[in-house]
Design a protein that fits this description.
By secondary structure, the protein is α/β, with parallel strands linked by helices. The chain is built from 14 helices and 19 strands. The strands form five sheets. Strands 12-11-8-13-16-17-18-19 form an eight-stranded mixed beta sheet, sandwiched between helices. Strands 2-1-3-4-5 form a five-stranded parallel beta sheet, sandwiched between helices. Strand 1, helix 1 (25-35) and strand 2 (39-44) form a beta-alpha-beta unit. It is elongated, with a radius of gyration of 24 Å. The N and C termini lie far apart (49 Å).
Length: 412
């Protein structure tokens, strides 16, 4: 920053908090947003303040917290907050808040803010399954979405008391990821994948040498999870086949199947691909596996170890392309490094031709790129010769660009 220039403006986020038991998770959402460089103003309902006190939100945000329109009247907060926000997130959004938002009711500071906001609005529902599935709630959600409001799909899992089912608030990390995506790209979550079944693989396979050691790779699975998360929020039915991504929370609205080896991933992907409209191979599959895996841990001795004999794993992407039915779309991923003979993009073009898929996402890897990091970049190559750069940004942003390209073909 040059002398005399203004400091960059932090993105301004209004974090609304509804009066549900999941209100305590808003504290983690708030912490993650503020620590990642956002200016966050918390606007709770009176009900939310029965679960989490204003002092907690003020301490974490460094800003005052009010719930009613009669606080700080001279600054006209009930209008100003919505007008100045870059994003409004409401987490949790109760069934009552959904109904108020759908019908334009404004009886507190948060609902007034929703009426004045002209930025992206992300409502993250949390309620019991019966409430989420009630025709009134479904009608309210449809009405809000028709107006351009992003109503996220809730997660499934443990609810209040002994109940389980759909209606659980997604994990704070997921809410923050969707928030960051909408700040990067306000149009990133259209409902253009309604009725589309997507099968996605993610993570890195591990091929055992013995019960302790394995051959593997550095894939974290974050890009595959981002593809699944964005697809689900765009309306798709998503089946995610994940290899060794235990530290990642299952995305809301996604059906998860865990696998370990390349052979297990191959079987799972062939099975789920049979009913899928779109198949995405984002997993980093080990090219080779040991011919033999020791039953017991291989002991270290004074003599040199025996060579490890390897055999080639199946080319799962090529098999899925060969087995696809008419109209099915297949997307591959290529993690490449350049060398003295060709650069990353040239290797990607050759791989697209060799595999025969409809689309190929090419990532340059190494030196802190693609693997084990939060962000990504690359190119999206099409079988018809089109090449689209994917600028550096969050993995959710890259996922949204992929779905922008694939959605028109997936809905045919």
């Amino acid at each position: 920053m040059t002398e005399g220039s203004a400091a960059p403006t932090k993105p301004r986020v209004v974090l609304g908090v509804g009066g549900g038991i999941a209100a305590y998770k808003a504290c983690e959402v708030l912490r993650r947003l503020t620590e990642s460089g956002h200016s966050v103003r918390v606007v709770p309902t009176d009900g939310a303040l029965k679960f989490v006190g204003a002092a907690t939100f003020e301490a974490l945000s460094g800003q005052p917290v009010h719930a009613d329109v009669f606080s700080d009247v001279p600054s006209v907060q009930h209008v100003k907050l919505g007008q100045e926000a870059d994003l409004v997130v409401v987490a949790p959004t109760t069934a009552n808040l959904l109904a108020k938002a759908a019908h334009g009711l404004a009886d507190d500071l948060l609902t007034n803010t929703l009426l004045t906001a002209r930025c992206p609005v992300l409502l993250v529902p949390a309620m019991h399954t019966e409430m989420w599935e009630h025709p009134a709630t479904r009608a309210n959600v449809a009405l809000l979405r028709s107006r351009g409001v992003i109503v996220a799909e809730p997660a499934s899992g443990r609810l209040t008391g002994k109940d389980t089912g759909k209606g659980r608030l997604p994990e704070p990390s997921e809410i923050v990821e969707l928030s960051r995506l909408l700040l990067e790209r306000p149009d990133a979550l259209p409902r253009d994948l309604e009725g589309v079944h997507v099968a996605i693989s993610a993570g890195g396979t591990r091929e055992p040498l013995d019960p302790v050691r394995f051959l593997g790779n550095r894939s974290s699975g974050r890009q595959g999870y981002a593809l699944a998360r964005v697809a689900a929020q765009r309306g798709a039915r998503v089946t995610l086949v994940a290899a060794h991504t235990a530290d990642l929370a299952t995305p809301a609205g996604v059906e998860l199947e865990r696998v370990g080896t390349a052979a297990e991933l191959r079987d799972a992907m062939h099975f789920v691909a049979k009913a899928a409209d779109v198949v995405v191979m984002a997993a980093a599959v080990a090219d080779f596996r040991p011919v033999d895996s020791a039953e017991h841990k291989i002991k270290k001795t004074d003599r040199d170890p025996d060579p490890v004999a390897l055999t080639r794993n199946a080319d799962i992407l090529a098999e899925l392309v060969a087995a696809r039915r008419p109209g099915q779309v297949v997307v591959g991923f290529a993690a490449e490094t350049g060398d003295g003979e060709s650069d990353v993009l040239e290797y990607g073009r050759a791989k697209l031709k060799r595999k025969g898929c409809d689309w190929l996402v090419v990532n340059a890897v190494g030196d802190g790129r693609a693997f084990e990091v939060e962000d990504n970049a690359g190119w999206l190559l099409s079988a018809d010769g089109a090449e689209t750069p994917l600028p550096h940004g969050s993995k959710a942003r890259l996922a949204s660009a992929v779905w922008d390209a694939v959605a028109p073909s997936a809905r045919r």
